[in-house]
Amino acid sequence: SENIYILGIESSCDDTAASIIHNGKILSNVIANQSIHEEFGGVVPELASRAHQQNIVPVVHQALAKANISKDQLHAIAFTRGPGLMGSLLVGTSFAKSLAFGLNIPLIDVNHMQGHILAHFIDVEGFKKPPFPFIAMTISGGHTQIVKVKNYFDMDVIGETIDDAVGEAYDKSGKILGLGYPAGPEIDKRAQLGNPKAFKFTKPKVDGLNFSFSGLKTAILYFIQKETKANPNFIAENINDICASIQYTIIGILIDKLKLATKQTGIKHIAIGGGVSANSGIRKALKDGEQKFGWTTYVPKFEFTTDNAAMIAIVGYLKYLEQDFSEANVTASARLRI
Ligand code: KG4
Ligand code: ZN
């Protein structure tokens, strides 16, 4: 049983992805992005479902071809059960079920948020794996959570957003500034050229380890409306400083909560995941925290931070080792909890 091949399938949002894992190593990691949503400044669920249906067979074909194996060599099919957009999840779930049924191999349902966390356990040269227990912070366009991870499948959500996700805060700020979608990477790029203290945005007051980002978005909107009334070129003249100031505020919020989480739990190993973990500001702040607060921090390889199927495949592999398989009547779950 040292030669386990598992196919992972991810279709929770707007990326159709498939990956083959051989024991702990990723052999292929294929993603079909759906550029259609850029025109609308956000993901349109109906269009996402249709694109998944178009993409899923070619993406799985490619994943098998790149791994240089045939589907008959697979030991199990792992798929994202939730959370996510229901129509998108249904495509991956139905496809995974049918393929497992056709090949007569086990089906393994995976929680997308556990995938973001357990992506740290993919074997990658030069990347260390966090020891249990550790604190995971998952920051993406759909989610913002702080999780106490005691073991692979023993985790507690100890904090989360009560409204917008942090990636949403980036994307909505970008919309106000007239930047493209998703705006996170562009704000990050401009932030590195600007003065983070040029403009001040107040941090939301939220109890404990929970987050709130919708007030920040509104504060930015009012600020920009006021300033452009006085100077119509305000955005163009100050874009880098505005981005730097927004980023400084957001990073401050995330770091404050991590400080509190490590204080409350006594755990100083911190792992991040999700699309926003690509952000240069959070990466730097985490590194600085190693000196300042005695943290040890873990940032996954870039291709395993944004939505991908390798993280689903690694969870599939870990569950396969425990023979933790799905029932044949398992259903997609848009609000699945960790
Ligand atoms: O994990 P992901 O690919 O998909 C979701 O599950 O949402 O995350 C996408 C989010 C978007 O909101 C995008 O703006 C943000 O991640 N993002 C960034 C950066 N790269 C991607 N936000 C800030 N800085 C970045 N460098
Ligand atoms: Zn995600």
From TrEMBL:
<keyword id="KW-0012">Acyltransferase</keyword>
<dbReference type="GO" id="GO:0061711">
    <property type="term" value="F:tRNA N(6)-L-threonylcarbamoyladenine synthase activity"/>
</dbReference>
<comment type="function">
    <text>Required for the formation of a threonylcarbamoyl group on adenosine at position 37 (t(6)A37) in tRNAs that read codons beginning with adenine. Is involved in the transfer of the threonylcarbamoyl moiety of threonylcarbamoyl-AMP (TC-AMP) to the N6 group of A37, together with TsaE and TsaB. TsaD likely plays a direct catalytic role in this reaction.</text>
</comment>
<feature type="binding site">
    <location>
        <position position="116"/>
    </location>
    <ligand>
        <name>Fe cation</name>
    </ligand>
</feature>
<dbReference type="InterPro" id="IPR000905">
    <property type="entry name" value="Gcp-like_dom"/>
</dbReference>
<keyword id="KW-0408">Iron</keyword>
<keyword id="KW-0819">tRNA processing</keyword>
<feature type="binding site">
    <location>
        <position position="188"/>
    </location>
    <ligand>
        <name>substrate</name>
    </ligand>
</feature>
<feature type="binding site">
    <location>
        <position position="307"/>
    </location>
    <ligand>
        <name>Fe cation</name>
    </ligand>
</feature>
<feature type="binding site">
    <location>
        <begin position="138"/>
        <end position="142"/>
    </location>
    <ligand>
        <name>substrate</name>
    </ligand>
</feature>
<feature type="binding site">
    <location>
        <position position="112"/>
    </location>
    <ligand>
        <name>Fe cation</name>
    </ligand>
</feature>
<dbReference type="InterPro" id="IPR017860">
    <property type="entry name" value="Peptidase_M22_CS"/>
</dbReference>
<feature type="domain" description="Gcp-like">
    <location>
        <begin position="25"/>
        <end position="313"/>
    </location>
</feature>
<protein>
    <recommendedName>
        <fullName>tRNA N6-adenosine threonylcarbamoyltransferase</fullName>
        <ecNumber>2.3.1.234</ecNumber>
    </recommendedName>
</protein>
<dbReference type="InterPro" id="IPR043129">
    <property type="entry name" value="ATPase_NBD"/>
</dbReference>
<keyword id="KW-0808">Transferase</keyword>
<dbReference type="Pfam" id="PF00814">
    <property type="entry name" value="TsaD"/>
</dbReference>
<dbReference type="GO" id="GO:0005506">
    <property type="term" value="F:iron ion binding"/>
</dbReference>
<feature type="binding site">
    <location>
        <position position="171"/>
    </location>
    <ligand>
        <name>substrate</name>
    </ligand>
</feature>
<dbReference type="InterPro" id="IPR022450">
    <property type="entry name" value="TsaD"/>
</dbReference>
<keyword id="KW-0963">Cytoplasm</keyword>
<dbReference type="GO" id="GO:0002949">
    <property type="term" value="P:tRNA threonylcarbamoyladenosine modification"/>
</dbReference>
<feature type="binding site">
    <location>
        <position position="279"/>
    </location>
    <ligand>
        <name>substrate</name>
    </ligand>
</feature>
<keyword id="KW-0479">Metal-binding</keyword>
<dbReference type="GO" id="GO:0005737">
    <property type="term" value="C:cytoplasm"/>
</dbReference>
<comment type="similarity">
    <text>Belongs to the KAE1 / TsaD family.</text>
</comment>
<feature type="binding site">
    <location>
        <position position="184"/>
    </location>
    <ligand>
        <name>substrate</name>
    </ligand>
</feature>
<dbReference type="InterPro" id="IPR017861">
    <property type="entry name" value="KAE1/TsaD"/>
</dbReference>
